[in-house]
Every structure is written in structure tokens, then in C-alpha cells.
Amino acid sequence: MKKAVFILACSLLLCLSVALAYAAEEKWPGVDDTVVGKYASEHGRSAKPGIIDLEGDALLFAFLIAGVAGGFTMGYYYRDFTAKRGAEGKTNAG
């Protein structure tokens, strides 16, 4: 019974969030529009387009993917980065 109530509550929450997302008529502004544009206009300058001009928060997503790839690589080679090396340049680990 608890499992059924939990599944029902999760499905209702999912449906509500999807409905609210489609109900929003206005597109959400990205970081450039809300933060950079605000401070640029306060200081009398216009906001310039970025070097890589991606729409919305796609640039943040690109940095997220790069961070995940870098973290995976660092985790994979963790033993090589932290292993103590002997006089001959070989690792003493395993």
C-alpha cells in the first residue's frame, strides 16, 4: 500500500511539473540575459555576445559535460597521479 501511494505521489508530481513547464509562455532567460546584461547596463555598457554563442544555458551544460569527462578521467588515472615513485621511476603500488 505504501509503495502504491509513493508511486502515485511521484507520478502526480511529475505530471504537475510537466504541466507547469508547458504552461510557461515566456522562455526562461539564460545567465547572460539576467546577470551579465543587468550589470553591463548598470555600468553604461552593452552586453556583448560570447565567443561561443549558445542559446540559453547550453554553455553551462557544455561545461558540465566537460567537468564530468575530466572527473571520470581523473578518477580512472587516480592511482597513477597519487602513487609514490621509487628511485627507478616505477610505482610501488601493486
Task: Describe what you observe in this structure.
It is a single chain. It is built from four helices and no strands. With 94 residues, it is an all-alpha fold. The longest helix is centred in the N-terminal third of the chain and has 22 residues. The mean pLDDT is 75.
Radius of gyration: 24 Å
Instruction: Output the helix-strand order.
Output: HHHH
**Helix/sheet category:** mainly alpha
SS field, number of helical segments = 4
Query: How many DSSP E strands?
Result: 0
Beta-strand percentage? Answer: under 5%
Silhouette: flat
The largest pleated sheet is described as: none
Low-pLDDT stretches are none
The percentage helix is: 55-70%
End-to-end separation in angstroms reads 51 Å
Short structural description:
The protein has 94 residues and is mostly helical. The protein has helices at residues 2-23, 31-42, 58-76, 78-82. It is flat.
Keywords:
mainly alpha, flat, 94 residues, single chain, 4 helices
Question: Which helices and strands appear, and what pairs or packs with what?
Answer:
Layout: H1 2-23, H2 31-42, H3 58-76, H4 78-82
